[in-house]
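In this supplementary section we document a worked example of the pipeline. Step one takes a protein sequence of length 334 as its only input; no multiple sequence alignment statistics are reported here. Step two produces a three-dimensional model, which step three serialises into structure tokens for compact storage. The input and output of this example are shown verbatim.
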Amino acid sequence: MPRKISKEQTHRLAARFDEATDIVANEFAGLDTHQQYRNAFSRVLKWDPLGRVLMLGTDQRDLFVPELRRAILDFVPKAADIFDFGCGDGQTLALAANALPGGARLSFEDPNPDYVDRYRRFIESCGDLEIGTALVAGFDEMDEVARSRKVELPADGSIALGLALHMLYFVADIERCLVRMARFLAPGGGLFIVLADESDGYTGHALRAFIEAGGETGANAHHLHAIAERRRLLAASDMLLESLRHALPDRTHRVCAQRQPSRLYGHSLSDLIALSTIATLATVEHVQKFAMTRRLLEEKPELVDLRIEDDGPRAGMLSVAQPQFVVRVERLRV
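The serialised model returned by step three reads:
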């Protein structure tokens, strides 16, 4: 059984927390928010050289990739269209790419031009997949950017599968975003969503600890509301289904939502402190945010379920709870 770390134990580790906080502050000082995010997220992407798990920094992909493969098999016929929203660099899709039928055409958008370029090269390396639209833009401005650049997005009602894999943290209005994604779905098509439940996850607790200590994100109230709104819409099927009924009354959908008890893992306290900034805190440049996270881990270890793993491929690593929602939205044929 994993060993839970109590408040009494964290107080005995004060010197180690001091050292870990200094290490992270020194690493991130002077970096812009994009560089900070990349350095923090590299902890999640740590690979297991023995190939026992998809990555050592989290079990999130181990839990949702089998569901992603099932969604591909259920929704994507040969030569169908797929739209990967906030696509990243293609590493996640690559884990399920062998389930894609030949001739599938992938469109993708991301505000990071390097990610879009890497994603394009990944699709090209697959040989039997085609590239549709590749757009450097965030989801919120996607339609406007496409119009201004005379780029043709997939038509509404045309795609077999839409993917929103851990990208909904970065949209302004999640309800409007989900409705826009659903508009792309062809009859019989599906939307596959994965998102951390920050209402009860480590990065959400870190954000609240930062704000409660006087920290400023530039939109504190908005970010706290967004966490609650994401949970309202994705924790169960009823709320999202009602939103889709209201916005798209001429269509019928089915929604299936599940919550997976996933975690974040680090080889050291400095890893865990850095991991607090893979979500909303990524927008805060000042490294003082890490002192707030250290205080959270030291004073409230039970709140984030801080523990030491003592078996399996991550034995000896520290971990915190970061549950995630996995949601399938299907547009029914009528």
